[in-house]
Amino acid sequence: MSRVQAPAVRRAQIVEAAKRRFREAGFHTTTMTDIAAQAGVSVGLLYRYFPSKDDIIRDIIEADLQVQLQTIEGALDAHPDDQAAALDALIADLTKLAADRDRTLLMLEIAAETARSPTLGKLAFGIERRAKGLIAARFGGAWPEEERETRIRLMMNMFTALGLDVYRDPSNMDVAVRLTTQAVRRVLDLGADPT
To answer: Which pTM value belongs to this model?
Structure first.
């Protein structure tokens, strides 16, 4: 890396290098020395940007969760008066996230880390609660209260499952997307995809 790079650029490059390393070896096996080598910086410089590996992990987790939240907000905001178009956009945009194989690898690490760390779990839960609230506000008006949380959680889990399925067998993506779309519509009680 060039010494003249802006701190934000260098920080972003370190995070991207850490992601590559984490995808290869996982969060816990990877060391700060590994990340520094992957990023092409000294360990001392790495510690100037991130005091610990946990800080890098937190940065990655928070960014990923924010992308999910912004994806949901963007799809719903793009079609404020058209329920069907909003659902189509939501499914399409969440499918794009699920189809990203590199993201899926990191998502598995993120899920494990947020389950192990109360601090990261709280962060994830807060952002997830906001995402679920957006979906409930848009689509959940007719659902019984005791079903609302379960319907939304199942819907979100379907995209996680889609990501895993596409990761395992990318050649099956069209079928997996079609079936996921149909299942999401049924869980949200908005009818099956006509295709």
So the answer is: 0.82
